Amino acid sequence: MKSLVSHTVKIIFFLAVLFSTSYSQNTENVISDINSSDTTFTMNKSPWGAVARSAIIPGWGQFYNESYWKIPVIWGTAAWLIYNWVDNNNLYNNYKSLYQSSELEYHRRLRNFYRDQRDKFTIYLGLLYLLNLVDAYVDAHLFDFDVNENMGRNDFQLNLRIKLN
Description:
Blueprint: H1 2-22, H2 27-36, H3 47-56, H4 60-64, H5 70-102, H6 105-141
Helix pairs in contact: 3-6, 5-6
């Protein structure tokens, strides 16, 4: 368990360093691009603001991004994972006490099985939390993305269908 925690901390630290360095921009290019164009684009949603909200309360970043349907998905999945973690932890503790009192191999194997299951659900819960943060970040970046079929063109289009029988 101690090595699992240390590996998790190392992975989180690595991801934090990776994201903090890979999203830096050269401000001179940004300023020259702004001065050369007629219009400037301003984002309506802050990606890091959405991440901060989701880090405090999972699903809050999705609420901020107006992706309301994702909130029950996140909370429902988290509730299911927590329920399974508690259930496996209770079974682990039961078989741990049975093994300590009887020293049977059967109880030891079940104790180890439920401990491993509990640890897996801990990992799944951590992955859900990270996925929640990544989703909030990406959703805030794509909030202003236009999916209009016209794509800014006002020219005439001709659509043809050829049906071969």
